[in-house]
Amino acid sequence: MKKVLIEARDIHFAYDEKEILKGINLAVYEGEKIAVMGSNGAGKSTFFLNLNGVLYPDRGEILMEGKRIGKKELKELRKRVGFVFQDADSQIIASNVRAEISFGPMNMGLKRDEVIKRVESAVEYMDLKGFEDRAPHYLSGGEKKRVSIADILAMKTEILIFDEPMAALDPVNSENVEKILSRLHSDGKTIITATHDADFAYRFADRVIVFCDGNIIADGGPWEIFKKSEILKKANLKKPAVMTIWEALEKSGAVKGNCPKTPEEAAMAIIARNK
Ligand code: ADP
Ligand code: MG
Questions:
Q1: What's the whole-model pTM score?
Q2: What is the C-alpha separation between 23 and 131, in angstroms, rounded?
């Protein structure tokens, strides 16, 4: 049995008077790949900020490996949970890429040698060699995204939260980010990512969580979640294209069993059946 890394228990959070999170319960297990979905304004980003200790819940609690995180432990929480902002421009602060990536590890109070080592390894991981002296704000959208991910990798947190990491990226850069997320997962990280892309969530995640108006209204395997039309309707979600085709074929008796993750895999399964 996998262990629970981080847990949210009945989290309530309000900006000013308006309650945004209305009792969120979620246990994240080590090594999971979770896609968080739901309409704009449903509370996903606010929840993430509560999970990594930037915001503190009004009610309820966050537990890290069973230990309750009080206001004094927020720094500890930030050392274990990294958060990549949706908008790289609101995350990036330094005037060159090296200083930018150094910022997190320096803030953690690490020794200079260790900071240098971490920056080098994050630069390499994110394919940013040669960019070290460049000004982040003059980089392309895809490059900025890579810098904002390198920022967080340099802190070596075991949990990585990505807030709509493909938003505003072109298809090639989106694919690149997806590969990075998969690679981080194979390297042992626990991944939580918000996304509006049902095709991506379906092929990438092993668990899908659906937010609606400050509550979690569904939590389960991608196939199980995307099969439920009432959930899709309530949260304004689209069904993955591969599932739409698969279900039509299933109805006509042309295929059987769980829908494959991608159109390519589905095509192979259909060809194999008709041989
Ligand atoms: P999502 O990420 O699902 O789109 P958010 O968590 O960003 O949702 O937003 C949830 C609600 O909280 C929205 O109605 C938004 O306007 C509000 N909100 C977000 N950030 C702030 C803030 N800093 N101050 C006041 N209201 C906010
Ligand atoms: Mg958001």
A1: 0.96
A2: 43
